Write the C-alpha cells for this entry.
Amino acid sequence: MNSNPQTHWTDEALLGLLYGLTRGPDQDQHPVESCPDCLARLETLRTSRQAIVAGGDVSEDFLRAQRRAIYQRIENRKRAYSWSWRVPLGATAMVVALAVFLYRPAPPPPAEPAVLSDAQFFSELAAEASGREPRAAEPIHGLFAETE
C-alpha cells in the first residue's frame, strides 16, 4: 500500500480492498497486482471469504436447538446465583457474633482525687520546694564547685 514497490500492502489495507471499504491512497502508484506476494495474500483472503460465505444456510432445527441451549445456560446461571446472597450474609453474621462475644468495655475511669483548698495546695507546694534538690541537679552543682 506504500508508494515504494519494495514494501507490501498491510493486512488492514488488503481487507479494506477485499470488502470494498477503501481503495488505498497509493493504489494508483502501487497497485496490488504489481506485487506477486500481495496478490497471493489477497487471493488467499478471497478464497477464505468465499469458503465462509459458501458454508450454506443453517437449518431452522439447528438454530432452535442452539437457542434452547442458550436459554438453558441462562436459566442454570440464574439458579446458581440464587444462593450467592447467603454467603455475604453469613460472613456478616459471623463478624457481628465475634464482635459481641469479644467486646470488652473500657475500664472505669479512676476515682477523682480529693479537691484541695488553696491553703492545702500552697502548703504542699512549699513543702516540695523546700525539700532537697533532685539528684539530677548534683552534676550541675559540681560544675560550679570550687576546686582546691
Summary: Residues 60-80 form the longest helix (21 residues).
